[in-house]
Amino acid sequence: MLEGIVVSIITPCFNSEFFLEKTIESIKKQTYKNWELLIIDDCSIDKSKELIENYTLKDSRIKLIRLDKNSGAAVARNRGIEEASGRFIAFLDSDDSWHPEKLDKQVKFMLENDYAFTYTSYHKVNEYDEYLSKVNIPLKTSYNELLKTCVIGCLTAMYDTDKLGKVYFPLIRKRQDFALWLKILKLTPYAYGLNEDLANYTVRSDSISANKFKAAQYNWYLYRNIEKLNIFKSIYYFSHYMIKGIIRSKFPSVAAKFNI
User: Fold this and answer.
1) Domains contained in the chain, number
2) Angle 48-58/17-28 helices, nearest 10 degrees?
3) What range does the domain containing 14 cover?
4) CATH number (domain holding residue 94)
5) Per the confidence metrics, is the pTM higher than 0.90?
6) How confident is the model at residue 84 (pLDDT cuts 50, 70, 90)?
């Protein structure tokens, strides 16, 4: 059933030489072999480009796309989607990694249930690959539910172009993955969760997710300027976002129990 079905993996890269090898090796170790990896280098000035080129020489499934100017993750990911030849589009950032059965289990999950858009649970690690915590997920989410809090980790998301066509990221610098999931959920009623821990998300000290205040600002911007919600709806969804964020931060065991 899986023969001939290609998964296109989109990986934007900017100065990621410290993490990139782990990311690529986790893809090469997938039990599902029918994939292509499109690495979009956003004008890195470290040794990322050379590292990627070495991999492309050894494995024809790995392709390097180099942007002419530094343009941000949304532009890089969209370029990857444009070049993708697979039926399924998946995402993995250049500092994250997958467990070996990730693609195999998720592709089967989508085909057996006829799902257009899915995601999985994952766990967080620090920059030295040390375990921090597990992120559980709800078994499905809708557009309105997702507005309350983004439960879809970018490193776990996968969509079916046979059902949805190619769907592109809004051209914003931050929270573009959240914006894309909302965009997809205007095309299909639900995203479905496979509650198996199949990926490792790297928490970096310099990441936007590490700065809660800035993340909140970007969330508000998304409500008002991308989704065009009125002030009352924006306040409603932002309140949910803030409350759930506090619960995850202060009461992680409660958050894990109720998939918050």
Assistant:
1) 1
2) 20
3) 7-206
4) 3.90.550.10
5) yes
6) very high
